[in-house]
Amino acid sequence: MPHITLTDNNFHNPPKLLEVAKETDSAIQAYEDLQLVANKSLKELCKNQSLLVFPQCLGEHDDGIEEQFIVQFEGSAKFNDEDKIVSCDDVKIKTGNLMGFIGFSGKGCHGTKLEIRSRFSENGEETENNNQDFFLHYMLEKVFKINLFNLNYSYSNSSGFDFIYLIFPYFLKRALNQGLFKTYKTFERNDSAVKGAINVNRHIRQNVPFGGRVAYRSREYTFDNHIMQLIRHTIEYIKTKPIGESILTQEPDTQKAVFQINEVTNETYSFQKRSKVIFENLKPLNHPYYLDYNYLQQLCLMILNNANSQYSTSSSPIYGILFDGAWLWEEYLWTILKDAGLGGKNFVHPTNKDRKGGIRLFDNSLDPEDSSFKKCFRRIYPDFYCENSNEDSNDGIILDAKYKQLDKGLVRDDLYQIISYMHTMKIQTGGFIYPVASTTLNNRESAGNVVLDKYCLANNTGFIKSFGFVIPECENNYAAFQQEMQNAEMEFVQQKLSTSIKKDE
What is the DSSP letter of 212? Predict the structure, then answer.
């Protein structure tokens, strides 16, 4: 069973498939499996419910994420006269911004496991116990509010698929914040409290001679339904994992959520019904109010479909969980910036996905009948901004999160974009925030946890600053990594950011 480990954004120097697969046979098997996803966009692949991608709602917000590829092949395999692959020596495998885990199962597959780590997992010398993806885990911990230390999480025994167990409480609590899911369900009962249509055939079969019970069918509005049963089966499965019990009991809100699910499903829950429950949930939930239950349903199906092949009802052999690096980096930065502020004003995090917090690009007051200016694409959505405290001050700032290697130079389109933001919002300071590997700093080792580059616009019209978060090299010590990241966050907020609007800083 091939196990392929890659890092994100390796398109400048993609490895050969044979190098990462280690053996020729494994490379051939991996090639055959990976053809199912190679050179295909997420838009094509995400029709499969067993493939979960963050952010969700792909293709609805013109962010281009749905056009990304998981992997791309460069070069082709060699075939014999019988059209059978004999060599993959020249095949290279490229990755983009996506990180996570993909598995292949089912008829015709070789069981390949593909893990895409962040490119910062390459910090330091790789050993048997080293080269863990602390950076990805740290961002997931911050964004999804996971405490890995409370879970006693072991990196040495972890796999990419563990992410899905770690984020389950987050989506469980988010769904239950909308209330317990309630819907109509048909019950087949046989008792004396008749409150539905009598099932004559079943009654004769079960209750002759008559003993006081009546077989009937009732349709009731209940919490005990296919969605809640799916969640219950997922909870019971997670309990069987080494860290499962810790995941479900790590904090009071999660415990309360688990208790609520157990309470409404105890009467009808049965382990033997798991495959039936999975089948009942293959149709996606489409409810305008219980939207978060749709996400939780997808998550549960993926966990259970991966649990054991005997429960897998998916027609697709692909399963996994993926995170867009740009989205995850932006959401991580928001956990830092939402409590920071300049000039007595807090940062705003516009959400183009919800069309909230956007800034009008054009003033249509001269032609109020021109509806084109009212369209959403006539608004701009900076990642983060803090407005000037008053009309006469210049203490505001606009920041763009970039999951790019900006230490190698700023990109022209990015510069034009942030300058347009600054001009429209009358803010003189803009900036980029990007991650940079500690191993690439060279002669800048003494720069601290955040490196800073400054650019002055012509005619003294503003400043652009580039903030590089140094991703530390901490070998096999996650505690040390976490501390270094917290130091970087503190340095950024208390030093670099607070002085960023000053001309001489």
Answer: S
Tell me the residue type at 38: A
Distance separating alpha carbons of residues 62 and 381, to the nearest angstrom: 12
- pTM summary value: 0.85
36-60 pLDDT tens trace:
999 998 888 876 657 888 887 665 5
Question: Exposed e or buried b for every residue in 343-367, given b needs 16+ CB within 10 A?
Answer: eeeebbbbebeeeeebbeeeeeeee
Report the C-alpha gap between 436 and 343 in whole angstroms: 29
How many angstroms separate the CA atoms of 505 and 501, rounded?
8
d(Cα 455, Cα 459) in Å, to the nearest integer?
12
Which pLDDT belongs to residue 376? 46
CA–CA separation, 346 vs 208, rounded Å? 74
Q: Can you state the percent helix, strand and coil of the chain, rounding each to 5?
A: 40, 20, 40
- Find, among 469, 358, 450, 465, the residue nearest to 403 by Cα: 469
At 129 the pLDDT is: 45
User: What is the rounded average pLDDT of the residues 385-399?
Assistant: 84
Q: How confident is the model at residue 329 (pLDDT cuts 50, 70, 90)?
A: very high
123 close to 146: Cβ distance less than 8 angstroms: no
Grade residue 311 by pLDDT with cuts at 50, 70 and 90.
very low
Residues composing the chain: 505
Beta bridge partners of 402: none
pLDDT attached to residue 316: 67
For residue 382, is pLDDT > 70? Answer: yes
Residue 109 or residue 358, greater confidence:
109
Q: Which helix (H) or strand (E) holds 105?
A: none
Dist CA 82 CA 88 (whole Å): 16
| Six token digits for residue 381 | 């959505």
Residues contacting residue 434 through CB under 8 Å, at least 6 positions apart: 401, 402, 403, 404, 405, 406, 407, 466, 467, 468, 469
| Burial class of 60 by CB neighbour count within 10 A (0 to 12, 13 to 18, 19+) | exposed
Distance CA 336, CA 313 (A): 41
